[in-house]
Amino acid sequence: MAKDKQLQQLQSIEDKLRKLLAKHADAQQRLAKAQEEVKFLEALVEERDQEIKNFKNQENIVKIVETMAGNTANTTELKLKLNEYIREIDKCIAYLQD
């Protein structure tokens, strides 16, 4: 009789342990998925920050060009040339970061 009770307790403990192990495995999967999502979001934030920085640079360049150039034709040409230089510089920076 005592052995039956001990066997039942042991089986109960074993069942609880299996459930805990299953919960642990599930929690680890959710954690791994969350960590992947965090990495993705961090990369996205970094990309957006770079875009914002580029827009600010372009805005500053436009202001400089407008103050430097007197007529509209020269302003447009200068803007295009500066934007081309900026794109090339951005490519170089991205290449160096990799």
Q: Can you put this structure into words, describing what you see?
A:
This protein is mainly α and 98 residues long. It has one domain (2-97). Helix content is 95%, strand content 0%. The protein has two helices and no strands. It has helices at residues 2-68, 72-97. Helix 1 (2-68) packs antiparallel against helix 2 (72-97). The longest helix has 67 residues, at 2-68. The termini are far apart.
Question: How would you summarize this macromolecular structure in one to three sentences?
Answer:
This protein has 98 residues and is mainly α. The protein has 2 helices and no strands. Helix 1 runs antiparallel to helix 2.
Features:
98 residues, mainly alpha
Percent of residues in beta strands: under 5%
What is the averaged pLDDT score? 85
**Helix content range:** over 70%
Number of helices: 2
Rg calc: 31 Å
Distance between the termini: 71 Å
Q: Uncertain segments of ≥5 residues (pLDDT<50)?
A: none
Strand-pairing-aware structural class: mainly alpha
Keywords: Coiled coil
